[in-house]
Design a protein that fits this description.
The protein is an alpha+beta fold and 214 residues long. It folds into 2 domains: 3-49, Orthogonal Bundle (Helicase, Ruva Protein, domain 3); 56-112 and 154-199, Elongation factor Ts, dimerisation domain (Tetrahydropterin Synthase, Chain A), CATH 3.30.479.20. It is built from 10 helices and 5 strands, in the order H-H-H-H-E-E-H-H-H-H-E-E-H-E-H. It has helices at 3-13, 17-26, 31-41, 43-49, 80-83, 86-102, 114-130, 135-153, 168-179, 197-211; strands at 56-63, 69-77, 159-160, 163-167, 184-192. Strand 1 and strand 2 (69-77) form a beta hairpin.
């Protein structure tokens, strides 16, 4: 299996790099076999749909039973017909429930600020050095730990709370295959009772002080 094969497979199917790598591994390095494997799994079909515009959908609110955690999430589909589909509505509700439980900060890895990524990378590199790991494997260890960082903070990378054998991203992809339209989690906001109030009070006090010339 080569990087060239992975890229060629990705160009043909639109599937992600990890899916292409797995498909080639399952097919003993055969690109054609990997194409068939991705089609059998429905991944190639779903990946092609991902390029289509998703301008309809739902904004759903979920409040945890004790009333102390609330979530607003927007999930897009291609048509209003699908937005009114019971399975799509269940998908959106389940994602909102997951956000309430798992507290992600971003939808995808691409949303994580570059400075936050570099700061975490430096922290993990320092840890590896302190642990006495050989320099030639330090970067590989850091790369693995960065994967855990994304898993902790990025919604689509997190293990799905209702079935931790798959990620939220894989759960969405499964529904793309079933529903037959592109589905995208666009944005979300998670609220915790009392959280952030201290910062708002401090910000207000600072504004008042600035206005008074203190």
């Amino acid at each position: 299996m080569s990087l060239k094969d992975i890229k060629a497979l990705r160009e043909r199917t639109g599937a992600g790099m990890l899916d292409c790598k797995k498909a080639l591994a399952e097919s003993d390095g055969s690109v054609e076999g990997a194409v068939d494997w991705l089609r059998q799994k429905g991944i190639a079909k779903a990946a092609k749909k991902a390029g289509r515009a998703a301008t309809e959908g739902l904004v759903t609110a979920y409040v945890h039973g004790n009333g102390k955690i609330g979530v607003l999430v927007e999930v897009n589909a291609e048509t209003d017909f699908v937005a009114r589909n019971e399975q799509f509505q269940e998908l959106v509700k389940n994602i909102a429930m997951h956000i309430a439980a798992a507290a992600p900060e971003y939808v995808t890895k691409d949303e994580v600020p570059a400075d936050a990524i570099e700061r975490e990378r430096q922290v993990q590199l320092a840890r590896v050095i302190d642990e006495g790991k050989p320099a030639h494997i330090a970067e590989k260890i850091v790369a693995g730990r960065m994967g855990k960082f994304y898993e902790d903070f990025c919604l689509l990378e997190q293990p799905f709370v209702m079935d931790d054998k798959k990620t939220v991203g894989q759960y969405v992809t499964e529904n793309v295959q079933i529903i037959g339209e592109n589905i995208q989690v666009r944005r979300f906001q998670r609220f915790v009772l009392g959280e952030g109030l201290e910062k708002k009070v401090d910000d207000f006090a600072a504004e008042v002080a600035a206005a008074a010339g203190i």
